[in-house]
Design brief:
Blueprint: H1 2-45, H2 49-62, H3 81-108, E1 115-119, E2 123-129, H4 130-133, H5 146-155, E3 163-168, H6 182-201, E4 208-212, H7 225-231, E5 233-239, H8 244-254
Parallel strand pairs: 3-4
Antiparallel strand pairs: 1-2, 2-5, 3-5
Helix pairs in contact: 2-3, 3-5, 5-6
Length: 255
């Protein structure tokens, strides 16, 4: 009898220890879940400014709301409606102007597929593949490419945005008397487009700049001939109105 009682006592002590461990595990799980909950709540409270502005601009454009008082979503946390309205209105106006430019260009060319368009935080990029404008390894504008540039020039008449013409090549080396490397080739091509827009369409030279990037800013890896053809291009970038300040300062410093 005594042995059975002693055994029973040890068994009860074992049950108490097991119960204590289960309680600690449950408590630890609860604390872990609470920590995860607060981490998720914190992550949800952090708003990406660029994504927020892009969403707001898209909604305003889709519902044709033009005034700052007609915002479809609340201002970004920390902003007052008045402080946020000016840059947002400028961004919305830029986007509408870019859409008008795209429509005018597409209406003025025979094959709209010869030109690609992209709108991002810099502005509107009008992209020409090099085979459209130039022969391989040359920087003289092809005669049949001039109507495309004329359509761009006509669409940009009256616009006050600053414009950057950027030349790009693939990674195949070039060694000629005119073009010792792809730097010279890409720069010469961007200058050819810039000069045509100025001389043919009277665009303000102070608002245009030419850049040659060589092969160092590819759109795709230069692993196939198809990708190399896509990387050989000239981009005409219509900068957003809020990008003008840096360009103005640059021109002032050059005077």
């Amino acid at each position: 009898m005594l042995r059975r009682r002693g055994g029973s006592s040890r068994s009860e002590g074992g049950h108490d220890a097991a119960g204590m461990m289960r309680w600690l595990l449950t408590y630890a799980d609860l604390i872990t879940l609470l920590m995860v909950f607060f981490v998720v709540m914190y992550a949800m409270s952090v708003v990406d400014q660029k994504k927020y502005n892009a969403l707001k601009e898209t909604l305003q454009l889709a519902f044709h709301t033009e005034s700052a008082g007609a915002n479809l979503i609340m201002p970004y946390p920390g902003e007052t409606p008045n402080s946020a309205s000016v840059p947002q209105d400028n961004a919305l106006r830029d986007t509408k102007e870019f859409q008008e430019i795209i429509k005018k260009i597409q209406a003025g060319v025979k094959d709209p597929n010869e030109i690609a368009f992209n709108v991002d935080e810099r502005g509107l990029t009008i992209r020409f593949m090099d085979s459209v404008l130039f022969d391989l390894g040359r920087a003289d504008l092809r005669a049949d490419s001039l109507p495309l540039l004329d359509a761009v020039g006509e669409a940009l008449k009256g616009k006050t945005n600053y414009i950057r013409v950027e030349g790009h090549t693939d990674d195949l080396p070039i060694h000629t008397s005119l073009f010792p490397s792809n730097w010279e080739l890409s720069a010469a091509r961007s200058i050819a487009v810039t000069r045509y827009l100025i001389e043919r369409h009277g665009m303000d030279p102070k608002r245009l700049s030419s850049l040659g990037y060589g092969e160092y800013h590819p759109l795709y890896p230069n692993t196939t001939e198809e990708n190399r053809a896509k990387n050989r291009r000239v981009d005409v970038v219509i900068l957003r109105s809020n990008k003008a300040g840096g360009e103005i300062d640059f021109h002032k410093n050059q005077q």
